[in-house]
Design brief:
The structure holds two protein chains of two kinds. Chain A is mostly helical. Helix content of chain A is about 65%, strand content about 0%. Helix content of chain B is about 55%, strand content about 5%. The chains are: A mainly alpha, B mainly alpha. Chains A and B meet through helix 4, strand 1, helix 5 and helix 8 of A and strand 2, helix 6 and helix 9 of B.
């Protein structure tokens, strides 16, 4: 009987702590405004959910915002460029991802995401934000491309 | 925005009125040539000075603009017929847009830029010192010749591109800085972008658009009426105008390449780093076969040519880069000349 009470108390405390974490976790302010110009062919349900939810632990809001902008924004405004932008190089991006996944800190953060974020599409974008914050932009773009590939599913 | 548009219109009106006066005085009786040209393709002069038709440089100042704006009914000329082609051409070739307007124009576009790496981020703290040092090296030889305050930003892109905006805003992809092997190309990229600003390339394009915004209404009506019976003539006119801008853009890019080579040889007098930078850029250009005409077949008949012209006007970008062959030939020639002359 005492053991049952103890287990119940532990479960209750853990649930309360998890709820408190959700309530205290920071929501990234201002992400909604990035969705105003989302291309018509890009479903917005996941993006809206991300914009309205607290960011998972370890996900940087600036990077998350930049990932969303990268996904939705159109053409550049003005500017003289050195050369035409080259097409997306999936091989180079994969190599960049492989390099990122050799960093223990990144591996830990992604593992944490797998535990805390159930929605696979949202997880891809959160992963992209983690890669962005660490400067692995090729890997980030690969994740964004993967999100685009699956967005309509 | 409306205020700045009005300012630009007023300013261009002032310029056109002054140029018209100069024209009327018989200073330029040459036949009109509407084409925009880059005259100094070998970039003998890295910094393009602020001039106004060579004779009235000091007439247009920021104070002058404010005074002109207060004058009534000078917003736009009433009789555009008085703007001759030679006046139009000189207004395009002169460097009359004030620095403050240029900076405002660049600032506005910069405000819309996304994906800028913060200087205080973990990655920023590592990469900005590298980029800043390159810019300091390249800017040193011309630092006394201009008033720009360059602002350098790293873009969170894995690519190897770079960009400049009027007023001195420079951008370089993280992909050029994160890997030491890319640093020679990064030097070339920064030198090329510095050159765009110092030559006021985009500012000149803006001036051209402002000048062209003054159209003769009667001519336009005639063209529209003629399009019913002779569409080719109307399309031809538009095509010539668009091709002019495209060629001008290509020439500006080649000029910026030339300036970049010259700047690099000034910044690194032993020649080795300068040559490495130029060679790295050339190596990273797309294969020469890429960028050929996308047109599957050459148009033969009149109707095919008409269709092709319409397609090119609408679909092909005016803002185009030179192809690999053109860039390589130009840079090899510049390198040869700089090495032979001891820079």
């Amino acid at each position: 009987m005492n053991l049952r009470i103890l287990i119940s108390a532990i479960v209750f405390t853990a649930a309360a702590a998890a709820q408190a974490h959700d309530e205290n976790a920071a929501r990234c302010v201002g992400l909604e405004k990035y969705l105003a110009n989302t291309p018509a062919d890009l479903p917005t349900a996941v993006l809206r959910k991300i914009a309205e939810s607290a960011a998972p632990p370890g996900v940087d809001c600036t990077s998350l915002g930049d990932v969303i902008l990268k996904l939705v924004k159109g053409t550049r405004v003005g500017g003289k460029r050195l050369e035409e932008d080259k097409p997306f190089d999936r091989g180079a991006a994969q190599a960049n991802l492989d390099q990122a996944l050799r960093e223990p800190q990144i591996v830990d953060q992604i593992a944490e995401l797998e535990r805390s974020v159930a929605d696979e599409k949202a997880r891809i974008l959160y992963e992209a934000a983690i890669l962005d914050a660490e400067g692995f932009y090729g890997a980030r773009d690969l994740r964004i491309q993967q999100y685009r590939d699956r967005a309509g599913d | 925005m409306m205020a700045s548009n009005r300012l630009l219109h007023t300013l261009s009106a002032v310029v056109l009125v002054l140029l018209s006066a100069a024209d009327a005085a018989g200073k330029d009786k040459d036949a009109a040539d509407r084409s925009l040209v880059v005259l100094d393709k070998q970039c003998k002069r890295i910094v393009e000075p602020y001039t106004f038709a060579g004779t009235v440089t000091t007439t247009i100042t920021d104070t002058g603009i404010a005074l002109w704006e207060k004058m009534p009914k000078l917003g736009a000329p009433k009789n555009e017929k008085e703007i001759g082609d030679s006046v139009r051409l000189r207004a395009k070739r002169s460097n009359w847009l004030p620095m403050s307007t240029e900076v405002l124009y660049g600032q506005r576009a910069h405000g819309l830029e996304t994906g800028i790496l913060g200087r205080e981020t973990k990655v920023g703290k590592k990469l900005y010192p590298i980029a800043d040092a390159m810019l300091a090296d390249l800017g040193k030889p011309v630092s006394a010749d201009h008033e720009y305050r360059f602002q350098l930003f790293i873009l969170k892109n894995a690519g190897r591109n770079a960009m400049a905006r009027p007023g001195g805003f420079l951008y370089v992809d993280q992909g050029l800085l994160a890997d030491n092997k890319e640093h020679p190309k990064a030097r070339f990229a920064l030198a090329h972008e510095l050159a765009h600003v110092l030559q006021r390339h985009e500012t000149r394009e803006l001036q051209g658009l402002i000048v062209d915004s003054y159209q003769d209404e009667k001519e336009l009506k005639q063209a529209m009426a003629a399009s019913k019976t002779d569409p080719a003539a109307v399309l031809g006119n538009v095509k010539v105008s668009k091709d002019t801008y495209t060629q001008h853009h290509i020439d500006q890019e080649l000029q910026a390449d030339s300036c970049a080579a010259r700047l690099l040889f000034l910044a690194y007098p032993d020649g080795r780093l300068a040559s490495d930078a130029t060679d790295a850029f050339i190596r990273d250009l797309p294969p020469p076969s890429a960028g050929k005409s996308s047109s599957p077949t050459r148009p033969r008949s009149k109707s095919e040519k008409l269709a092709q012209a319409a397609h090119d006007i609408v679909k092909l970008p005016a803002d185009r880069h030179p192809n690999t062959r053109e860039r390589t030939a130009n840079l090899k020639s510049m390198q040869g000349e700089l090495l032979a002359s001891g820079h």
